[in-house]
UniProtKB/TrEMBL annotation:
InterPro entries: Aminotrans_3, Aminotrans_3_PPA_site, Class-III_PLP-dep_AT, PyrdxlP-dep_Trfase, PyrdxlP-dep_Trfase_major, PyrdxlP-dep_Trfase_small. This is Aminotransferase class III-fold pyridoxal phosphate-dependent enzyme. The keyword Protein biosynthesis does not apply. Belongs to the class-III pyridoxal-phosphate-dependent aminotransferase family. Keywords: Aminotransferase, Pyridoxal phosphate, Transferase. Its cofactor is pyridoxal 5'-phosphate. GO terms for molecular function: transaminase activity. PANTHER family: ACETYLORNITHINE AMINOTRANSFERASE, MITOCHONDRIAL, AMINOTRANSFERASE CLASS III. Pfam families: Aminotran_3. The keyword Oxidoreductase does not apply.
Amino acid sequence: MSAEAAAAPERTDVVDLYLKHIGSGRAVMGRVMGSMAEVRSEGVWIHADDGRRFLDFGGYGVFILGHRHPAVVEAVHRQIDTHPLASRVFLEPVAARAAQALAAHTPPGVDYVHFVNSGAEATEAALKLARAHGRTSVITTRRGFHGKTLGALSVTANDTYQTPFQPLLPDVTQVAYDDPADLEQALAARRDRACVIVEPVQGEGGVRIPRPGYLSQVRALCDAYGALLVVDEIQTGMGRLGTWWGVDTEDVRPDVLLAGKGLSGGIVPIAAMAATADAYAPFSRDPYLHTSTFGASPIACAAALATVRAMEEEGTVARAAELGPRVLAAVREVCAPYEGGLVREVRGRGLLIGIEFAEEQAVGELLLELIARGVLVNHSLNSTRVLRLTPPAVVEDAELDLFLTTLTDALHSTADRMSVRPPR
Ligand SMILES: Cc1ncc(COP(=O)(O)O)c(C=O)c1O
């Protein structure tokens, strides 16, 4: 028995504890996934309590640096040994340096940073900032995902998650993604009082990639109709698309940019709302306007600072740009025999790749087939037919090869189980 197997509670106990104290739904899901509990991680690997290890091509987009990147771990250890949480009475240097480090990579002029603890909180901060500017009418995109706290959920366009919690924020309008004409119509009816929130590529929406020029058009429309533009880069940012931010490909400067997931270095949860001086002014003037006890904690900021530095030193963004097209081409090749049948389309940008299936069932089947073979991937919360791959930029060629052979086998078994023959 491995050390972690000896130290961890019996596996059945974990399921039982979930049943009794966390929730039956999660417990049942855990059973379906094989009843393993994850207990250790490093690089691209997650280790379970039964001694098995899993190649992590999922992680909901968090692990651009893989698991337990040594530089981030060391910075966090150091911070624990010195000053993990602040009094919030004095100024705190790590938050200041983390803001400076992040602002060095945000679009020019997006210089102010408000740190929070999760992506949804970054959305909340942006929605409140918009209101402070009188931009009370919010325009979001269909299938857009921005988090699940009450305000964020109001702009997360998915009935499944919204319906049980209605009424949500008033005056939220959904427009079609990648459709400037639809956006213009909505903006024209809300001159000088709208806030637009949009993702450069819809991640949870099923890796939807807009046509080139879309973000520039959104920017121009926001300018024309006096709207505040919030670009949600929580999933697409921090190198995920092969650029620091999705907006970089079109040189678009949002008023507000949201970051999260990868900013944590995969170690300590942290997210951020970055903004231009004009947009940020209400928060800048009054530091008590929007606060949270743990926001901008030294320990989380140490992780963020070390993450940005590690990405700079290791050329993570360039690596994602180089690796992404290779992974996409290879996944396309694996899926090619099933296209027109089981598989509808494989699409991606950088290290955000989606496989769209003809049927929703295929996503669940393939996910389980991959788990059985030691690979983790994700489904898409706002697009049930799309399986999502978000590999770390630190993945080696041998691990990529292992992923591709595993995907080939798992896809074959899925097609067999669903009695779908390759059309060619
Ligand atoms: C684009 C986007 N925005 C916001 C969120 C919410 O982030 P969190 O889950 O950290 O609250 C997510 C999470 O998947 C996301 O993909």
